[in-house]
Design a protein that fits this description.
187 residues, alpha+beta, 4-stranded antiparallel sheet
Amino acid sequence: MDKLYAQLDTYYPLPEPARSAFFSAWKPFFYEKGQFIVPEGRVSHYLGYVVKGVVRIFYVKHDREITEWLALDNSFFFSIRSFLERVPTHLRIHALEDCELRAIHHDDLMQLCDQYHAVEKLFRRMVSTSLLLSQVRLEALQFETAQQRYERLMRDRPDMLQRVPLGYIASFLGITQETLSRIRAKS
C-alpha cells in the first residue's frame, strides 16, 4: 500500500482526515492470469491500481483484439468513460498475470469528493493525467513512426517487453507483429 500512497501523493498530497478516509476506501482484489476484471458490456465500477501484475485493456474490432492500454506494477487503470458516465463499456479489462490490485468504487470516490475538496482535487488531477496519457498515445500513433513508438516504449517501459506477449505489444503500438519483429531485429 505504501507505493499506492506514494503514487497518489504525486498527484496531490491529501491532508488529514481526508487522507485516512480516502485510503480506507481502497479494497484489495486478486485476479488469476486470464481472468476478466471487467468484461465487455459491464459498467466499470472501480478505479484500479496494480500492486503487482499486468492488466490489459482491449477491444475487439473486425474479429481482432486491439490493445488500448497496458497497466503494470504501480499504475492505475479503468475504463474512463464507463467509470465516469456509469455506462457499459466496449472495452475488456483482464489480467495478463496473476494480479494483486487495490481499487476504489465509483460511489465511494464520489462520496469522498463531495465530502472533501482535497479528494476532489486529487481525483481531478488523476483524470487529467489519464487524459494527457491518452492524448500522448494518440499523437504517437498519428505522428510517430513505428520505430519511434517502439523506441519510446523501450525507453519508458522496458519491463513491458519481458512481461507482455509481443502480439499485444504490437497491437498497443499500432503495428503488426511482423513489423514489430523487424524493428526488434534491427535494434
